[in-house]
Amino acid sequence: TPAAARRTARAHYQVGLLQAALENHASAETAYEEAIDRLNSLIRSEPENDEYHQQLAQAYSGLASVQHKWEDSLRIYRQAEDAVTRTIELNTNVAAYYSSRAEIRVTLSDFRRADQDAEKASQLEPDNVQFHLNCCKVHLLIPSQFRDLDRALEHGRRAIALAPLSGEAYRHVGQLLLYRNFVESIKYLSKAIDLDPNDAGAYSTRARIYHAQHKHEDALADANEAIRADPHDTWRLLRRAQIYVSLQEFDKARADFTEMERREPLNPQMYGYRAAMHVALGDYASAVEDFTRELEFRPMRHHLYVQRSIARFHLGEHDKSLEDIKTALRLEPSDLRG
Questions:
Q1: Which of 47, 76, 78, 314 has the fewest CB atoms found within 10 Å of its own CB?
Q2: 301 and 325 in contact (C-beta within 8 Å)?
Q3: Which value, to the nearest 10 degrees, does the dihedral of the CA atoms of residues 230, 232, 236, 240 take?
Q4: pLDDT for the residue numbered 238
Q5: Cα–chain-centroid distance for residue 91?
Q6: What is the rounded distance in angstroms from the CA atom of residue 308 to the CA atom of residue 118?
Q7: Tens of pLDDT along 174-186?
Q8: Taking Cα atoms as reference points, which of 177, 126, 168, 192 lies closest to residue 147?
């Protein structure tokens, strides 16, 4: 029956979530694919059912998150976007659908449309705290040239007004203020921690500020608290690794980088930060390897070619160094560092 098929599809999806959390990616992939097969079968029998299309989008997003190749992940995220777009075509007045598509579009670097979707969700349900927080999240994830900080802060403060005991709301405002005022940012982040001593995001962001202020011991203490509160988030390891580099505790930094690579091999930023550590240590061969790995994900980032060129120059690979400079200048002719 359709009801039994819905339950089965949902069960496979939940298994996928669990296996992904346990880092059993192969098992998670199998479970998500089973959910997708069941949902596609349901859609064939009820093509106008918007809930099936939304659940399909969620299953595709889950499947995309456990891929080992970035190009496969992007392809599947586009399928998720198509599914949720069809959901919205069938029912244009559900705020959660727009919010879901906003998250997918951020992943696909479609920042303008992600912002539009998040705003639409908050307009449909103006008293829903979560949708105001989602608007903050979009602006925290997108590059600065697309960020409307004042509008994002309005959403964050509206969330605090609606839920004055929400640590998450204070954290989002604090994270946004990171780009404007460290003192104010720390005030909101500390309030978030007071409300929720297990708020890993608040600890991690405050660690970032202390690190920028060269308060490395304070930064390390907060980074450790973030990992205690959320040991599964690999970004916490990246933050601590950077702090260890500043403290010149390179063996500990290397251990965090290595663990992050094991957990999340498709994260380009990890390779860039580790390459910078290799440069600081004079290990230019390892730096070239990591810059090259990051360039596989970010081939249009001209500054990475400049950095790899410098490392290659130190290795005596002058021809390759020159080629990197030429590539950098083709991508960004105004950059005269070459």
A1: 47
A2: no
A3: 100
A4: 93
A5: 28
A6: 38
A7: 999 999 999 999 9
A8: 177
* Encoded amino acid at 28, one letter: A
How many C-beta neighbours within 10 Å does residue 188 have? 24
DSSP letters spanning 2-32:
HHHHHHHHHHHHHHHHHHHHTT-HHHHHHHH
The model's pTM: 0.78
Q: Give φ, ψ of 307 to 5 degrees.
A: -65, -40
**Matching residue, tokens 């083709």:** 330
Structure tokens belonging to residue 60? 């595709």
State how far the Cα of 170 lies from the Cα of 25, in Å rounded to an integer: 34
- Residue in the block written with tokens 């190749």: 69
Q: CA distances (Å), 189 to each of 1, 102, 178, 205, 314, in order?
A: 50, 25, 10, 8, 42
Polymer length in residues for the chain? 338
Instruction: Report the SS3 class of residue 129.
Output: helix
Beta strands in 67-203 (DSSP E): none
Query: Residue 6 is which amino acid?
Result: R
- The alpha helices in 230-283, defined as continuous H runs, are 234-246, 250-263, 268-280
Tokens of 222: 């907060």
The single-letter DSSP state of residue 248 is T
Separation CA 32–CA 15 (nearest Å): 8
User: What residue type is assigned to position 299 of the chain?
Assistant: P
In terms of Cα–Cα distance, which of 59, 106, 52 is closest to 79? 59
pLDDT at 269 over 90: no
